[in-house]
């Protein structure tokens, strides 16, 4: 039909005639009908666009002479009008979303002349001469065509449109005075870098700089010129310095000059001191970073591993004639898939933990086989996940990374086999740069993508790590909801309880192994020895002794619930076990690999660490992990040598057994011994005390082991040194912060990020009334100080050792508006009021977040400070109250007390 046609109408008629006269199947007739409808629709659209274009280039008499030869040529049209300084170019530009855009010379009230006059006035105020003004305005206005073509329509008001690109705006209007221009827009205003222009407007002395010929680009008005003058000019100036006449200063001018010089000197000195203190703080952080990172408790942070960033859609051509494909995960999770043709270059296979399938390894042989010896029978018609690859709308691969990578590397022979198979199976002729894939019929959320990707890999993981990260992604939503304590009387009951709690589909039997593996990975920190990565490494190390590898792995996976319970056990808030979990697992594998017996291991560790300087050893360590991790790993590894490793470790990690052991080995007790200043309560033990306990538990009574005693002495030395280092660092930090002046604190606040672990802590002493006012008026948010770890853990903050007390402008606004008897001075004192309170109550707010209410009785008044914990590991100031009387008689106290008693 196409060959016999000379126009679109001919083609439609020939197509209809062929359909009537030929014996086509119903499917073919349906395709012909769809094609014909598409042709008619396209024809109508072309007619409509042609009409719009014709209308766009029709001049309006209101704007004078038209230059039609420059229609649809915005750059040339602009140059013509700047040259002629009159008339118009109708339809100088055209956009599908707006229609025709006229370039009009206009007058001082509208059009290009209006824009030029406005800028000339602005540059005159800045002190530019006539030549510089012309150069600037010409350069500025010539950006308009590019903005119109590449910019996007930011907003639409009746009769107006705004096109923006980077920092520039072109404003279009449909009006000339009160008269509306039918189906036409004209340029009426142009704005660029207004903030920079306003800043320059306030600097009175700039005119001299401009007269001296400094070349400022209109695109970078607020940036210094870095182009040096020619060297010859500088040499001439050195040889023949210009003669200037110095006008004597009056006494008043001289006094002002001296005052300014003194202020400048003080400012420079203050800035120098600020820089020194900042560098000192950075150096301190760097020196202690490795030593303290294990105490930060940064486990469970798997957002970066499981959150999928979906980009812009790639071009796709859906093949509606092919029946939809389908993959089924279970009875409730069934996904329809469309077939689509895509450009090969747009596909994004991934073999890292950052992709949809979160792989840590690739099978190069599999890719090579697909690329060089493609066998269609292994893919086409297989159904489910084994068929054609499944991708997201942005080209990321959900299922079939190896297949896609192999197809991208096709040899000519394999490409020929692939195209032939596509033709036979689907009756599609592909272009050389195209591939046929499957795309979900509907947009998927993060959980659905993770589940689909994880299910596609079931039973065919390339590595242990691929398996671990797949189950972690799959169970993530359930892991976040898991109860903090899982009470079970045996390791068998515990691992089944984990599986039951994490099971998505109650109709299917829980997967005990996968669910417990996901919980173990979830509670590990994101470090280079993280469980996900180290599983691969140790599996390879144990190639000749796979039973030992499986023994250690099973012991850890079976006890995922035990570690989970201990991490969230409020009886031991300072242990922060999650920060060490991956190191413990890593060192347990290493210990079993390197030593035949536990005795050999302990002897070696004893010789290595007894009477050595822990910090020196730590700094020399290639692995960058604290020494205590190595001993902790060895203390857990010995359980792998028991007859039933999982059971033995389970018993050792039970909360009641830990308390019993701490008391038995004289490490800690329910209460302190009043005659022993070094005694501890259970709640005060740290990771060193816990390691001491693990080395002692499950040994023969009265066992006399000199090696073990020396190792425990080494642990105590490490503990003292760690405490000393932390105290010294805190002391230095506090001293450094106390020295800051108001301007330095302001600068610190301005340079600090608003959120995250990098937000700068200014110190309680620096939260002055002036700083509170500065925070409020400049919409700032800062960390005042760090919170006691035990208190932070009570508030369920994620990383108790790095939790901060934070104040922001919104809280200050609320307090000053709602409680007018409070001042900046009261707010500046809020942390002291909180810490020295007569009574502190903990409760939950309407969003189930922990809240701290602190009540203070001061000189016949009572002051209440409310702070709320958030998901950012912060304790935020919420509000303050101040009233006359006794706080215990107040309604706010009675209500808070009732809520506190009803909270868990």
UniProtKB/TrEMBL annotation:
Q: Which InterPro entries match?
A: DdrB_dom, DUF3519, PBECR3
Q: Which residues form a coiled coil?
A: 260-298
The record's listing under Pfam families reads: ddrB-ParB, DUF3519, PBECR3
Keywords assigned by UniProt, alphabetized: Coiled coil
DdrB-like domain residues: 331-440
Q: Which part of the chain is the Phage-Barnase-EndoU-ColicinE5/D-RelE like nuclease domain?
A: 782-889
Q: What is this protein called?
A: DdrB-like domain-containing protein
